[in-house]
Amino acid sequence: MKVLLISEASNLPKLFSAISGLNPSYVEAITNGEAKVGVDKLLVADLNFNECWVNLAVERAEGFDLIALPSSRDMREVASRLSVRIGIPYIAGAVQLSLKDGLLATKLCFGGRGLEVLSSQLPSVVSVDLSGFEPSFGEPKGRESVPHECKGRVRVLERREKLAEVDLSKADVIVSVGRGLKKKEDLEMIKKLADLLKAEVACTRPISADLKWLPEERHVGMTGVRVRPKLYLALGISGQVQHVVGFRDADTVISVNIDPEAPISEVSDYFIVADLYEFVPKLIEALEKK
Known about the structure:
By secondary structure, this protein is α/β, with parallel strands linked by helices.
């Protein structure tokens, strides 16, 4: 089986890990920079526009059984356009890949509460959700710089980096708050607890998007960050599917909610029925005595 990987250099080691279980006989990768990954051939090109990625992929795609890309915003666009250009099927957002009479791609469904398996003939294009994969590093057996002239139809006038104060995906401990928090000033209590636990503060979408109490990069959920901490402490969070998807891979989930029937109880390792305004001060007091 021959596999063509198309990915930014930063995501390439995880993408290689995602397809390794297919035991491909040959793996070639198209990327935009140096990458420590054990593919058979690494093709490095100056790719500034999505259109450039698509054009180069079309040139290289012949003879490959599978073309795999990360399920990032730009790469999903590249994947869909590539599928149309070369006329082969496309499956988006796979979390697991296997082979049986073609490609079997497992995807999340029902907001992350279920799994579905889609079957596709080969050759196919697939984009992969890399949040559940560890990077696989190595040295490419061959490397080639590919001259590729491409002038996108959209001209970039300026790029401004969006500065984020935290990367929740790297946090080992997270203290997260929901609508059970009554006012913005009460975040100081939550931050104090997080400091004692050496944790990062996170939140549900209403806290960041609607109330603007915390920045967007602290929003955990389907449309926010997906995290895999050792401990996820959920305070005043009901447990809607859109939020649960974001922390479902945490090692341990402890939730505190005044409602004994809160849906988050179903996905918690420890569920405490309590008012966070009583629980948090007592926990802070206990931690300070240590």
